[in-house]
Amino acid sequence: MTDIHIRTEGRAGRITLTRPKALNALSYDMCLAVEDALEAWRHDADVDVILLDAEGERAFCAGGDIAEMYQTGTEGNLDYGRRFWRDEYRLNAKLSEYEKPVISFLHGFVMGGGVGLGGHCSHRIVTDSTQISMPEVGIGFVPDVGGSYLLAKAPGRLGEYLGLTAARMGPGDAIHAGFADTYIPEADWSALKARLCETGDAGLVEAAAQPAPDSPLAAQQPQIDALFGGEGLQDLLNMIKGDPSEFAQKTLKTLTRNAPLSMAVTLEMLHRLRTVTALSIRKALELEYRVSHRIMEHGDFLEGIRAAIIDKDRAPKWRHDLSSVPAVDVSRMLAPLGKEALQFRERGMKIGFIGLGNMGGPMAANLLKEGHSVTGFDVAGVTVDGAATASSAAEAAAGADVVITMLPNGAILRAVADEVIPAMSAGAVLLDCSTVDVDSARAVADQAAAKGLGALDAPVSGGIGGASGGTLTFMVGGSDEAFAKAKPLFDIMGQKAVHCGPSGNGQAAKICNNMILGITMIGTCEAFALADKLGLDRQAMFDVVSTSSGYSWTMNAYCPAPGVGPQSPADNDYKPGFAADLMLKDLRLSQQAAASADADTPMGEAATKLYEQFVEHEDGAGMDFSAMLPRFEKRGRS
Ligand code: NAD
Known about the structure:
alpha/beta, 2-enoyl-CoA Hydratase, Chain A, domain 1, Rossmann fold, binds nicotinamide-adenine-dinucleotide
């Protein structure tokens, strides 16, 4: 890539932004390249220190590259921006928490994304040309990239002032506000960098430090604290309007230009962050991401970019007047995102995926979409777009962090496990999502544990629709450590993962659930057939039962009678949905488990026999499992 130069020099890992014509604006690819470099150097014994600097005289980095976000956002594609932000925020946290010293050389403009890159490092050096700011409210956004964290920790109400006015900080101000640590004149930088590369000793920064220049903001601090001490945007405006000083009037003028909703949300963010016990950059980034996730749809971001950098008319039409930003609009921006919340998981886990059929294929595709790398293998030669294809299960498993299997049955799982376990790296996790017998699940887990691997049995419910939509429910057996490692993957492939206990318990939960399902479906179908013979209208039957003590998922959500209740496979000639063959498989597993555990399951046994009869001796194969209703309908008592 020409926009960034990553290399090692002596004892230093070096990252130099080389896009001076664009004021070193940070693109998505640059962001990923920095993260990859940090990962590569994390355990590299030859790298003691990281140096982060930029070419050109005018800027270290004037922000994130928002042109592409505008382009995709105006086309209705919100995913690009959200992914950029998520990956960028994870990088911001990584820079802040990195195990080795990271030294940033912050010359010229350091704005927005530039603060995210250089403002969280362990050693932040400023010079006379430095001008740091968080200008987001001017384009209808809020201080992000961990900027809200720095603002919330700034002395007094300086955070509110800097966040709402986008005021620029010179070197003295940046140090006073906590955005930088050390002043070193730029003339000394080149020699310092050379010595840092030679020795890898970050202590040289301290030794080269010179007294920081004065901070005009420090002198103004009492007035800023008085003007920006109110609870809401209106309180601030009233205070500022009531102050005739030149500073207050200039500040007022600035505030009237910026996006009202953005300012109100920024204020609320800072107030909330200050009350967080053990405030961390992660907590701030998580809050910021709530806004980023929604800002294109519900905020002024696209309009702000249009006015500032696309049409350059500098006349944005904000959604709200300065005098009226409803509190509910602010709360809505900051409401928790649930499943969409920012995760600090690693991008790019290496995943081997074995069994790319109806379920495995779409599950693998969802993992790819979230930036993981997938190597797939299926005996039938099935491939998934974007995934590497291995020529054997062992090849797919080699070097993977997690190996996922999605296979037809326990015997095949055991055979595949024999092949992949010896090929897996120590510490990796074997994650089986197939529905198999409890004994096979436990045997495979023991085999994996003996080789120092984690193992999880995690059968799913939700069917093919859930696999494509990423809304499966996982029932998981295995250790806490293995569950924690796989959790980010469950979050992508599903809506819920329940940790049911040690190995085999996931399959136990699945088998028990599906035994209830099979029994209930038969009960529901035979009751409809009886109602027919008693002359009771099916709709009337549904209306009563679905709100009475006979209600069940099979009646209320998956009604087997065509034209009654919500849409279900019955309305589509009983094409599966959930095939009767698969129900038979699961019922047999329940009976196998019941026999091995000496459990009495007469209803499960009866249901198994009925589905066996239906699938193997009648016309049930290839039909939905609710097609039991037409079967009962045709029969008499004998
Ligand atoms: P599928 O038959 O479509 O897929 C299984 C895949 O495994 C096939 O592509 C097959 O070629 C491959 N395979 C078989 N042996 C292999 C081997 N030795 N090495 C590599 N690949 C091999 O089945 P599916 O519908 O995807 O179901 C997979 C599992 O998920 C099953 O255990 C099933 O019970 C369970 N399940 C399915 C559903 C559903 O609605 N389909 C719902 C919940 C659970």
